[in-house]
Amino acid sequence: MRIAACLLALIGALSLALPALADVRIKDIATFEGVRENQLVGYGLVVGLNGTGDSLRNSPFTEKSIEAMLERLGVGNLSDDNIKTTNTAAVMVTAMLPPFARLGSTIDVVVSSLGDATSLRGGTLIVTPLTGADGEVYAVAQGPIAVAGFSATGVAASITEGVPTVARIENGATVENEVDFQLSSLNSVRITLRNPDFTTAVRMSDAINDRLGGNSSRVLDSGTVELAIQGAGKGDVPGVLSEVENLRLEPDSIAKVVVDAKTGTIVIGANVRIDRVAVSQGGLTVMVREDPVVSQPNPITIGGTTVVVPRTTVGVEEQEAHFTILEGADVSLQRLVDALNAIGLSAMQTISILQAIKAAGALHADLEII
């Protein structure tokens, strides 16, 4: 069975086994405004590499960093000396500072080579301050790094598995500065939908009002619902947020068809509908094959010349085309899948048909090609 037929049949089976939409928790489709991670970044040095570090001739910033580090450690002025070490690499260190991270807590960091180092395996990151977008230092990273990939090089061949110039340090940074954010001081909290939609926002507000009573929430726009912290709830904001985030509702979604042209993957949403159309798929396949023949009529010793005689074979195959009726807009996803499946198309042919139906104005859905 072709790829498209298998995939469409699977989607059709799922549409029968499951409801079109399911109840989900608010925490799975939305976030609380202000409760977020913050990006951190820093520049540092990895030392202890076994000759796989930066070549200082091609990475002058690594040499300058080594000189500055050694001067801070009291080695003295090295600007006139020629440093030739290959055991050090300049790296960028990135991390995500979780919400409400406290002093002394640890976070993971990612270490990425900045110069021409071939591998960071076996190295140790030297103390690296990590700053936020405001320029303040929020964490300090240091420690031995773990590399998932490897690289082996010989005289005439080499092999690389993964990316040996990117590494991680689990719990490699210690939080030194907290992001000032007090939940108890809030009179209201905004809930932000990951996929803005007015219908979903209204349903969320209704679910919150039914649970907390009164006008506890209101819809500000398609992506934001404002939750008012009222009465006794002002003293227990985390408790109110915990209660709200576990409320369940049925989110709405737009009709969409997503196509990955590179792999031939097609995903059809439950709300996709089409007008009644007739579809025919067919075409010509032209094959041109070259089979050259080598001819040498006389031996080379008596003046024979080797001649390459071209031989071309051309074949034309015409595929038989049949019209198939795709039903109207009131049918279910299962009927649409069955109709497309009945044509017996390849993945690329199915994509072409969906594009043609969209161009004809008969596909009532967003067609997104990635």
From TrEMBL:
Cite the entry's keywords alphabetically: Bacterial flagellum, Cell projection, Cilium, Flagellum, Periplasm, Signal
**Claim: Signal is one of the keywords in the record:** yes
Single Gene Ontology MF annotation? structural molecule activity
Q: Write out the annotated subcellular location.
A: Bacterial flagellum basal body
Q: Which GO terms describe its cellular component?
A: bacterial-type flagellum basal body, distal rod, P ring; outer membrane-bounded periplasmic space
User: Signal: is it a keyword of this entry?
Assistant: yes
Do you know which NCBIfam families this protein is assigned to? Answer: PRK05303.1
Specify the protein name. Flagellar P-ring protein
Organism whose genome encodes this protein: Salipiger bermudensis (strain DSM 26914 / JCM 13377 / KCTC 12554 / HTCC2601) (Pelagibaca bermudensis)
